[in-house]
Write a structure and sequence with these properties.
The chain contains 5 helices and 18 strands. It is α+β, with helices and mostly antiparallel strands and 261 residues long. It has a single domain, classed as Double-stranded beta-helix. The strands form 4 sheets. Strands 1, 2, 3, 4, 5, 6, 7, 15 and 17 form a 9-stranded mixed sheet that branches. The protein has a 3-stranded antiparallel sheet with strand order 14-8-16, with no helix packed on it. A 3-stranded antiparallel sheet has the order 10-9-13. A hairpin with a 2-residue loop joins strand 5 and strand 6. The protein is globular.
Length: 261
Amino acid sequence: MQTVVHEPVGATVTGVSLRNPAPEMIERIRGLLGEHGVLVLPEQPIDDGAFVEFLRGFGDLTFTVGETPVEDFPDLNVVSNVGRTVPPRSTFHVDTSYVRRPPAYTSLRAVEIPARGGETLFTNQYRAYDTLPPELRERLDGRTITHVVTGVDPGDSAETAAEHPVFRRHPVSGRAALYLSTPTRCVAVSGMTPEESAETVAELFAHSTAEGNVFRHAWSPGDVVIWDNACVLHRADHDDVMGDRVMHRGMVAGTDVPAAA
């Protein structure tokens, strides 16, 4: 297993096969995710069956109610621009952060790659925390953000809101990360008025997603990318895409309630 580290976040891992991965390899990847946030695993000619088995090595899978499942693989959902007259919209976010135990990991398998564009972007939320102005960090210490569902129909019995610490202790690395999602999903900061909350979330979001804190992954056939939702934000860049972009997405269920740093 060889690792090439990217700046400001992420790494590319080669010399591994995702078919029938040994538990030792899964634990090595889990540690690398806690350290680097995002792993690019190139040249993985696997099908959905092998993809699901790889992800199950990390734990039970979870599915966001309201997404479109992959045929014959109900644990996976389709991310696609095929047949759309208007490009999909994507802003930086954390997947399904509006539940009490958000997904631990998300992964995408490249099914069809456009001739141009369609990159996925990631932020380093460890660095976002470390580089906060001291006075802002002090003011937010011990506070929480209320996350709510947007963009999908969660169904009658699904969770639709959860309160999480602004500063989250990573369950593997133990490091502190700034934990938030897209501003429309972050509706309140504890102890603040609605106006103060909106201003604070906007400031934190702009800080997290500043250009110097973003890694941009350009997809190649056979790529599998997996990321740790406790320490990164992500979004797809749908601008100027030429051709079909089809990804299959799987998520590993979280077992812990996010803990304050």
